[in-house]
Structures are given as C-alpha cells and as structure tokens.
Amino acid sequence: MNESRVAKVRALTAFIAISAGLVSFTSLEFMLEAIQSDFSMSSDATMFVSTVASGACLIVVFLVGVVADRFGDRRVLVVAGSVFCTGAVIVASSPNPIVLLLGLAVGGVGSISMAIVGLSVLNSTFPGRRERAKAFGLFALAAPVVAIIAPMVSSAIVPTAGWRYVTAVWFLIGLVTVVLSRRVLSAPAEGGVRAEFVSPTLAGLALSAIALGFSFANINSQTHLHRERVVISAGVAVAALIALVIAMRLLRRPTLDLRSLRARGSVPVFAAVFIVNGVNLFFFTYLLLQFRYHLTSFDTALLLILPQATAACGALLGGRFSARWGTARVATVALVAAAVASLGAFFVSADSRVIVPILVLAVAGVPIAAAVGPITHSFMDLSPEDGTAATSSVRNSGANLGVAIAGLISGSIIFDRLDASSARTAEVYGQQAAAFHLAGVMCAVAYGTAAGLMVVHARRRRVTLS
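RESULT FIELD:
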C-alpha cells in the first residue's frame, strides 16, 4: 500500500479501536433488562455489576500509556483487542452475575486500552497540522456515530436472538482491530530504560477508586444504598495515593508519565477536558425524554438520531475549521456557541411536545461536538515525542473523572428533580421543565467556563485567537 492509503487504514484502525468502548457501553444499556431477567437480579444488583465493571477497568489507564510508549502501539493494540474479545466471550457464556461482572471488567480493560492507544495512533499518524486537525474531527465523530448505530443493532438482536448474541458485535470489533493493527502498524525496536509498572498501576488504582466512589455516591443519592461502598472506595483511593507518593519518592526512575501536565498551558486544557466530558446536554435531554415523556430506551434512541446526526456534522466541521483557523480558536468559538445554544433549554415548557427538546439539542449538538476534536487535539499537542500514549492516558483519566463527578452532580440535582414524581400532571410537568432549564444553565456555565480555559491555554501557549 502507498503511504496515503496506509495513513487512511491506520486512521480507520484508530477509529474502530476508539469506538469499541462506546459500542459496548451503549449496547449494554439495551441488554440490562434481559440480563436482569435472565439472572433474576434486582435493579440494585444490576446497577452494581455495571458500575463496578466500568470503574474497575480504569486501573489500567496509566499502565497502558507506559506500556504502549515502551513496547509500541502495535503490540498493545493487538493485546487490547484480544482482551476485548476475551471479555465478550466471557460475557456471552456467563452462567451467573459474578462471571458476568468478570467478563464486563475484562472487556472494559480491553476497550479502554484500545481507546487510549487508538488516540495515540491517530495523533502520530498525521504529523501535519491540517491533516491532524481533520483526524481529530474523526475522533469526535465516533460518539455520535455509535450512538446512532449501536441502539438499532442491539434492539434488533436482543428480542430475536437474546442479549448474549450482542457480544458477537463486540468480538467482531476486537477482531477487526487486531487484524488491522497487525497489518498496518509497525513494531518499533525495544530500547531505553526498563520500565517499572508500580507507579502507573497505583495511579490507576487511585483513579478507579475515586471514580467508583463518586459513582456509588450518585447511586446512594438516588437509593440511599451503597454507603459502605463509598467509604471503602474512598479508603482505597487515599491508600493508593499515599502509596503512589511513597513509590514516586523511592523509585529511581518512576515511569508514571505526567510530563504532559507539566507543559505550558496544560492545566487549563486538562480542566476543559474534565468539564466538557462531565456536563453533557445530551445526557440531560436523554433523562428528560424518559421521565417527562415516558419513553423507552429504544424510542429515546430513535428520537435522538437527529441530534446525533447534527453532532456528527459538527464533529467533522470542527476538524475542518481547526485545520484552517487553529484548534484553540475553533474550540473557544464552538464552546461559546454551545453555551449560548444550551440556553435553548428554556424553550421547553410544561406542555411542550417532544420535538421541542429534540430540536434544541439538534442545534446545540453542532457546536458541542465541534469543540471535542479541537480540545482533544490541543491537549495531545502537549505530548512529548516519546510519550504520546501516556498523554492519551492522562486525557482519558480527566475525561473519566469528569464523567464520574458530573454523575454525582446530575444525580443529586437534575435526576432527583426529574424523578420527583411519576404523576402525569401539569404541576409535575412544570417541575420537570424547570429541571431541564437548570440543566441548560449548568451546561451553559460549563461550556462557557471551558471556553475561558481555552483562552487561558492559548495565551500560555502564545497562540493568537484573533
């Protein structure tokens, strides 16, 4: 293959790898009801299994970056894809909830590793500024594309063949990633200082415990359960952080690579990653459709096709505009536009038809998605030449912490207000509309703050926005 074709196949490989976790997470939502029935599990037990599995896989976040920078993207992506396939097989054949939890955790380790290395591959495939900017538009495209396709596929498989057969899609994604990685990614020669894995593992354990603690606190705010689990998670996080500090002092050459956070302008853009992934108008609209309009998950996914389609357009536009005008400028403008568009939530009233919030989100989805690629690109530009995967790990940790902490905020504020009553009265509908107005304000403040952070980032990097 010629160089241009190889670059395109590498980008396709990265896109598929990045999409793996999104596919498994999205399709799992459509499997949970059947899983709960199959294993005679309570709602609390089902939520516990999915929460622990998603949190446990974060243990490898920093370790994957170290290993990929040491042994190369090709090897790690092949192993990660194989692990994802193994997790799919375990889930498909699970005879009880414990094995199911194990399979989801194994699959989660594979998918999060694929996402981290996939972003690293995307970052290194296109060294030119314009080509790389367009490539990060491809990165932002993954979420809306998966959000359109995965619910349709899962909803078609579960009623006809059963929930276990959905994992065949997971297996196929992992297998394709392995085959493409072996074909188009090169294996660099080993060299350099021997890596230790204690410090990145301890950092990952702390991240996992923090995320689980916030997730359990969110569940606790809704059901008044899991208090002991919150305390245990907090204890593990503190112990891991203390052990990490000690290890970093004792180790001669700790390999936990945080150099990207020491670069000029890193803190503002890292905070922007945290905020944008933490407060999400798509999530709040999803809740509104289910609680205000009493829609099923499938009906909700169908209605969200239009906003997801406009978001896909926004992702591509964000990449193209970044290639022309620069990432910091496009990210800032897109975030300001997203903040303004989020206030469209006030168009939703107690007696609004369901099309109103859909149209509001369809408009807001364009700048929201347009900002994702440029923000990610800005952070990945901070990576040292020999630490691209480690930088991807740091970005992933910020995104996951944002999701976990925002889950607590949305759970305690927006969710409780939307779920305050199941009665179908004008008064309740008014309260739910008011909750969505508050969600719009929260998003506007979050996106506006992220825009300000991108301005600070640009100034520290001495990048002009004019």
